Amino acid sequence: MSEITFSNETVQYMSLASKYCGANIKDCVIEDDRIVFVVEKGDLGVAIGSKAKKLEKLRTLFKKNVKFVEFDEDKERFVRNLCKPYKVNNIVIEGNDNASIVRIEVNPRDKSKLIGKGGRNINMIRILARRHHTIKDVQIV
User: Fold this and answer.
1) Distance in angstroms (rounded) separating the CA atoms of residues 65 and 124
2) Where are the domains of the chain?
3) Helical (H) or strand (E) element with 88
4) Is the pTM of this model over 0.70?
5) Pair type for strands 100-106 and 88-94
6) CATH of 75-140, one of 3.30.300.20, 3.30.9.100, 1.10.3210.10, 3.40.120.10
7) pLDDT per residue as tens digits for the range 81-138
8) How far apart are CA 42 and CA 59, in angstroms?
């Protein structure tokens, strides 16, 4: 887990998203055409809104794809949340508490989708996993 520092742009995105969706936002990662917000545990439904109206409002406001991920103190549950909407069959955490390696087992047909074009999805999962837990690497098997 690393110390998280936010740029002015990131703080502005978090503030606007929190204002519009009413959820407690813990973190935000901005990448080209998408923004991933990490919300406090229990705030995911509030953030998305009824019939995903709040989510759509933010997509229109930011002109980017917006995704919400629910935070969890438990490494395994947090990694599962990062992998949604894909079904994770198994998660194995190897190593000690200071630098663990997470191996995610998914359905073979979902593997390429979870990795993403050019590895962009797995890179986002790695970034967020490292920021919130003592995880050295995340691998898809």
Assistant:
1) 14
2) 8-70, 75-140
3) strand 88-94
4) yes
5) antiparallel
6) 3.30.300.20
7) 999 999 999 999 998 777 899 999 999 999 999 999 999 999 999 999 999 999 999 9
8) 22
